[in-house]
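User: Can you help me understand a structure? I only have the sequence.
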Amino acid sequence: MRIAFFCPHSDPLASPGEPDSGGQCVYEARVAEQLARLGHEVRVYTRLWGGKSEHQAICDGATVCRYPMGPEGFLRKEDMGPYLAEFAERVLSDQSAWLQHADVIHGHYWDGGASALIASLAVGKPLLFTSHSLGLLKRDRISDPTPDGSKFRYELRIRAEKKILDAADAVIALSRTEREALTGRYGTNAEKIRIVPGGVDTEAFHLRLDKTDLQRQLGFTSDYLLFTVGRLDPRKGFLELLEAIPPVVKALREAGKTVTFLIPLGPEQPSPDEKAYRDALLQRASELQVTDAIRWFHRLTDQELLDYYAAADLFLCPSPYEPFGLVLVEAFASGTPVVATPHGGPIDIVTPGVNGYLADPMDPPAFAARILDALLAPENDRHRMRAAAAERARTRYAWSSVASAIAEVYHSIQGDAFALR
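Assistant: Let's start by predicting it. Here is the structure, written out as tokens:
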């Protein structure tokens, strides 16, 4: 098959720490790669900016094609709406011959879905949509602090999502929570929806069930090491995580134990929003008197990221809302249990008491309590939880399985492209 991905904001080959990079970019890159390995040809259409090349190979059979859109420089995904028609027109003008022979158009996130819808109508090809995150669910958990709604532009996003979902021939949901929202709150035809989770390259991560030696090699001397990672963004919940640190430190001190939290500070050259959030983190840590329990870090190398995942006793996901939770699966592949938000995809990934715990990060005492449950359990139970996490990653979330399931969805909508519209 010929498969076209539309993802204006989420360049699959974005550098870690780049604005608006993250788990969705990894998802698109790995799915494209695995589809190519299955013998399909994939072209990924994204925005050209930052001095990148117009064409860049992911692997043989999968290529990123970049096109200019809107103003020069970084453009927030929330601000792309006025330029999406321009983006689609540039892609169609340059790629018309290839798209005329494509088998499916696949839009990622609402900006990708909107541009993919334009392309689908122009060339008469089936449309598949993966939201990666839904505006209605995100708005439930994170309100827009600006009087005019310009921070997250929920009204535009939700309206666009509804139009895309109505037009799509099939929709991939990453979790049960997303499927329920699609049918119950967006009114999406349930027959269109397939649940296919995100995945992980299990061979790329360092599986460590015994953590202590690696911690010492990396220079950590505390009894426990806790890790979290992500863009420097309020939506990742790092400020909320800080509120849970004092009760954890206090309880461990009473047990004669010490702990180190690994928390990101974003790139060394932050954007204004990143700098404001960084300043808020540093100030709040000082106010809470927990700076001694924190090891801050800037952008990690690939090796550092793998080492921290593997060395951590726990991975923490304090996002108020997490659409899927790729970082959780990456932690699992490293033999690292998690404490994660119950809002969104983590409820499908985490089995409480088996491979981690779920707790609301907006309730710091509850989040701290689950951290302590995991850390202060008997060593045999902790080892069993690590093994269960690794097994879950291997059997459920290998990228090859994810891509095969998506290819089956592509096949299911060929030849009857408009039946469910």
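Now, to help you interpret it: The chain has two domains: 2-199+399-413, 212-396. The first strand starts at residue 2 and ends at 6. Let me know which part you'd like to focus on.
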